[in-house]
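Review form for a predicted model. The reviewer records the input and the model, then writes brief findings.
Reviewer: anonymous (R2)
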Amino acid sequence: MKRSILAAALLAAGAVGLFAQPTTARPAQAAPAAKAPAPKSKAELTALQAWQAAIQAGDQDAIIKADDDLLVKFPDTEFKDAILVTEADAYQQKGDWIKAQIYAGQALAANPKSYQATLMLADIPAKHTGEHDLDKEESLTKAENYAHQAIEVVNATPKPPQFSDQQWADYQKQIAGQAQDDLGLVSVARKNWDAAAASFKAAVALVPEPAFRVHLANALANGGKPDEAIAVCDQVLAEPNLNPRIQSAARGIRASATAAKAMAK
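Model under review:
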């Protein structure tokens, strides 16, 4: 799924628009509640532009360096939570789940209403908690709680001015869909196949991503519903330009469900 956490962090913070604006004083009549974050100096603006360039280039190491430079030189920046989210995401992309969780936690501490940080704190343990981890249930419970929290927070977040009504509604669905997928993965880890299927169905209803539908097919197959699993796989496999990994997973689940159905006869 194209979660676009990095872009979301920038857009929700209003960073893209602000980078093109001069760092002039804010109007005295501006309401504090409506205040958007802004660089406090030309030096911070320059550092933020380097940060944005690293994100646009997709260079994870450059993103981490730009994040660290900003946090060291401008510790009171109004973009702190967005910077920490992008650092967490960069470490997640590099496969360092421990650092990703640490920075996501710092982002949430900086802004308790950061649904991006909350979603990451749900996503990482939902996907990376091992079967034999000593803290398995504790990690899964945290993932479950954060997933619910992400849905609540994003649905309660006012529309940022740079979004149209439709764009914001679609983005809220994207966040909620990913959170529902994480809830499904938590249920998979617990081998609660009916609960997993219900969460994956909710995710697909919000955002019909092929990855979500593959997760749904897997839950249905393991839950003893091969016909439904095969039907979902057929829908996924009929999509053009399907990611090879998704295609392979769908074919594997379909083959297993077909074999299980034959054995049941």
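Findings: The chain is about 70% helix and 0% strand.
Further findings: The domain at 1-16+38-176 is CATH 1.25.40.10 (Serine Threonine Protein Phosphatase 5, Tetratricopeptide repeat).
Recommendation: see findings above.
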